[in-house]
Each structure stands twice: as structure tokens, then as C-alpha cells.
Write a structure and sequence with these properties.
This is Iron-sulfur cluster carrier protein. Belongs to the Mrp/NBP35 ATP-binding proteins family. ATP binds at residues 108-115. Binds and transfers iron-sulfur (Fe-S) clusters to target apoproteins. Can hydrolyze ATP. The protein is α/β, with parallel strands linked by helices. The chain folds into 2 domains: 1-86, SP0561-like, CATH 1.10.3910; 99-339, P-loop containing nucleotide triphosphate hydrolases (Rossmann fold, 3-Layer(aba) Sandwich), CATH 3.40.50. Helix content is 34%, strand content 16%. It has 12 helices and 11 strands. It has helices at 11-17, 21-27, 43-49, 54-68, 114-127, 144-148, 191-203, 223-231, 250-260, 291-298, 310-317, 327-339, and strands spanning 99-106, 132-136, 155-156, 162-163, 165-166, 172-174, 210-216, 236-241, 265-276, 282-283, 302-308. Strands 1, 2, 5, 6, 7, 8, 9, 10 and 11 form a 9-stranded mixed beta sheet that branches. Strands 3-4 form a two-stranded antiparallel ribbon. Strand 8, helix 9 and strand 9 form a beta-alpha-beta unit. The chain binds adenosine-5'-triphosphate. Adenosine-5'-triphosphate binds next to helix 5, strand 9, strand 11 and helix 11.
Length: 344
């Protein structure tokens, strides 16, 4: 007999404990399990947002309890939205694993802010006490080291591996930039050399104990993303998109690639979703949000919608990205952590 589900329970907790309830939420027309809000919102709160009457809420709660106990519900069981926004409990099977989660950040197209989202997600995770590393998998166009202002060349670690550089805030960073004489030197390498560099960045670098290793990938579906998907013990992929990107079908290419390589999309982030004035007026500069479609094509929860902020570019150029603070990124990190629950 399952514990009684009540209207004040958080949607995320309900579906995590009783996955059969996802069908009930969807059957009642509530998309909350596929929404970032569901991570914090109560069942009653979700129902209120969707203008449920008290009677409808009562029936929903009754059905949730029925589903949790394997009993019939009043809503016809819709085709189970397998993986659609169900928060994943990704408990590491091996408690001795030094890096608890390896997550790649991917986008189909260049310039949507994938590196920036990777960097700021790392910053917020670190602020929340997580041990974080960033592997800059963009070998030919690295930008992570610059963003964090990490200078100098990596040294040999005590165990004979490569010691990653550390940001001011304590994030471990490894990027091709660190091996170039001049930051502007090009890396003119063919695919196999790029793949080999990525593998070495994972296996030869002494990452130590980490909660999250974020791997920033170059755009597209070429050698580097393929290497990461196939050669690294990847736990999941976060897809970064922007409002106008869905129309170009590049997101679909990413999704298909991840699926073909048997990877798992753990969440999506919509960057450059809106611009907010000091008076809190919002403008959707790149058009209306496609977040709902993103969730439905990827089958993964929306982790956050990031604003456009002109302050970011100058901070990144000055290597001071860690000085940036925004509630949107703190919420993104919180959603990320609750989606990928790990055992320390
Ligand atoms: N939300 C945002 N607000 C303001 N500037 C942003 C935002 N997102 C990204 N940018 C800026 O856009 C530029 C491109 O971002 P970034 O390098 O992160 O994109 P990318 O997708 O990783 O690019 P690439 O395809 O080259 O790897 C950077 O100058 C970055 O600072």
C-alpha cells in the first residue's frame, strides 16, 4: 500500500516515488511533470494554475492514489509519455565512482549560448556546494578557460596525471586553450586528433572527487559529440536551445543523434528566452518561447528559461563569469540537481 498522496505534496516527489502517476497528471490535462515548475510546485498549486475546480482537484488526488496503488483510475490511461519530463533518479550504482555524474551540454547550432550556460550552471552548482569540473570539449573553438579567467598551463599532478586549472571559485577546468602558446593560435586538427584530445581530457586529467563533470561540446553532430557520447561514461545530455532554433530542426538532429547513440537527454534549457527591463517588463526578442515543443520533442524536463543579459558578454570577456548572479541560474542549478539526484 503506497503512502497517501495529498494535494500539498510536491509534484516532483509524487512522480519520482510513484512513476505510474505521470499518466494521471497527463490524463487530467496537467503537463506539470514535464515542466520545471513541477520541481517545486504542489499538486494543488499545479491544479490551481490550470484552473481546476475543488471537485476536479479532489478527483485528481483520488486518481493519483489509485495509480500509486495499481488500481484503475477515472481517466483513460493515455499512452504513457515514457521519459517525457519524468524527473530521473540517477543514483550512481557505484558509490566509489570518483565522478558521480558526467553530463554533456549540447546544441545543434552554434552561438546559442551553450558554453555560457555550461559555465553559469557550473558557477551556480558550485555556489550550492557541489564539486564541479568542466571539460571543454570544444577543442577547436574553446571558450571556457577565457570565461573563467584561468591562466597558465596545467601541471603534472601527484599521481602523474594532468592537474586541471581551478577557477577562483574552485571549479576545475580543462580546456585546449591552456595548451596553446597564444590564445588566438588555431587548432587545425582532423577528427581523430580531436577525439583523442577529448578522451585524454577525461582519462589523463586528475579530476579528483567531483559531483558533476560538465562537458561542453562544440555545436552540431560531428566527431567531438560522437566521441563524447561513445567513449566517455556519459550519464546524460542537456540540450541548450534558443526560441528561434526549433524551427530549423537542428534540435531534432541533436535529439536523433543522442537517441541513436543510446544516450539519455536529462533536460533542456532555453537560452535567450527573453529580455527583462529594470521595471521587470519582459520582451521576447527572439520570438515566443518554444519550451513546450522542446519538452515534447526531447521527452525531457525543461530545466530553465534563461534571460538575455548584456552584462554577461563583458563579464565573460573579462574572465569574471563567476561574479555573475541571477535568480534564473540559481533556479536552473536547483532544477538540474533535483532532476539528477545523486548519492554522495
Ligand atoms: N543569455 C545571454 N545573454 C547575453 N549574452 C549571451 C547569452 N547567451 C550567450 N550570450 C553570448 O553569446 C555569445 C555566444 O555564446 P556561447 O559562446 O556560449 O555560445 P555557444 O553556443 O557555446 O557557441 P559555439 O557554437 O561557438 O560553441 C557569447 O558572447 C555569449 O556571452
Amino acid at each position: 500500500m503506497a503512502e497517501t498522496i495529498t494535494a500539498d505534496m510536491v509534484i516532483h516527489d509524487v512522480v519520482t516515488r510513484y512513476p505510474a502517476t505521470v499518466k494521471v497528471f497527463h490524463g487530467h490535462g496537467l503537463p506539470c511533470t514535464a515542466c520545471a515548475v513541477g520541481a517545486r510546485e504542489s499538486v494543488a498549486g499545479g491544479a490551481r494554475t490550470h484552473r481546476f475546480s475543488p471537485e476536479k482537484l479532489e478527483l485528481l488526488v483520488k486518481d493519483l492514489n489509485a495509480a500509486a496503488n495499481g488500481e484503475p483510475t477515472s481517466v483513460a490511461p493515455k499512452k504513457a509519455p515514457v521519459g517525457k519530463g519524468i524527473p530521473l533518479n540517477m543514483l550512481s550504482s557505484d558509490p566509489d565512482r570518483k565522478i558521480k555524474q558526467v553530463i554533456a551540454i549540447m546544441s545543434g547550432k552554434g552561438g546559442v549560448g551553450k558554453s555560457l550556460v555550461t559555465g553559469l550552471l557550473a558557477v551556480s552548482l558550485r555556489r550550492q556546494g557541489q564539486r564541479v569540473g568542466i571539460l571543454d570539449g570544444d577543442i577547436t573553438g574553446p571558450s571556457i578557460a577565457r570565461m573563467f579567467g584561468t591562466r597558465g598551463q596545467p601541471t603534472k599532478s601527484a599521481s602523474g596525471g594532468i592537474e586541471p586549472l581551478r577557477s577562483k571559485g574552485g571549479i576545475k577546468v580543462m580546456s585546449m586553450n591552456m595548451f596553446l602558446e597564444k590564445e588566438s593560435d588555431p587548432v587545425v586538427w582532423r577528427g581523430p586528433m580531436i577525439s583523442s584530445a577529448i578522451k585524454q581530457f577525461y582519462s589523463d586529467v586528475d579530476w579528483g572527487q567531483l559531483d558533476y563533470l560538465l562537458v561542453d561540446l562544440p555545436p552540431g553532430t560531428s566527431d567531438a559529440p560522437m566521441t563524447v557520447m561513445q567513449a566517455l561514461p556519459l550519464d546524460g545530455v542537456v540540450i541548450v536551445s534558443s526560441p528561434q532554433m526549433l524551427a530549423t530542426m537542428v534540435v531534432m538532429k541533436c535529439v536523433n543523434m543522442v537517441q541513436q547513440l543510446k544516450g539519455l537527454i536529462v533536460g533542456v534549457v532555453e537560452n535567450m528566452s527573453y529580455f527583462e527591463t529594470p521595471n521587470h517588463e519582459r520582451y521576447e526578442i527572439f520570438g515566443p518561447s518554444n519550451a513546450t515543443e522542446l519538452v515534447s520533442v526531447t521527452g525531457a524536463p525543461l530545466l530553465g528559461q534563461m534571460p538575455i543579459d548584456s552584462a554577461l558578454t563583458s563579464l565573460c570577456d573579462a574572465g569574471r563569469v563567476e561574479e555573475y548572479y541571477s535568480d534564473a541560474y540559481e533556479a536552473l542549478a536547483a532544477n538540474f540537481v533535483s532532476t539528477l539526484k545523486i548519492k554522495r
